[in-house]
Amino acid sequence: MATRFMNLTASSSSSTGAQIRRAVASSGDDVGSEPIGWWFAAAEGEKGCGSWRIGGDSQGHGLIRAKGDRNGMHNPDESATAAAPKLVLYSFWESSCSWRVRFALNLKGLSYEYRAVNLAKGEQFTPEFEKLNPLHYVPVLVDGDIILSDSFAILLYLEEKYPRKALLPADPKLRAINLQAASVVSSSIQPLHMLSLLKYVNEKLGNEERLAWPQFHIERGFLALEKLLKDCAATYATGDEVYMADVFLAPQIAVAAKRFNVDMLFFCRQSKFPILRAVYESCNMLQEFQASLPDRQPDAER
Question: Cα separation of 110 and 117, whole Å?
Answer without folding.
Answer: 21
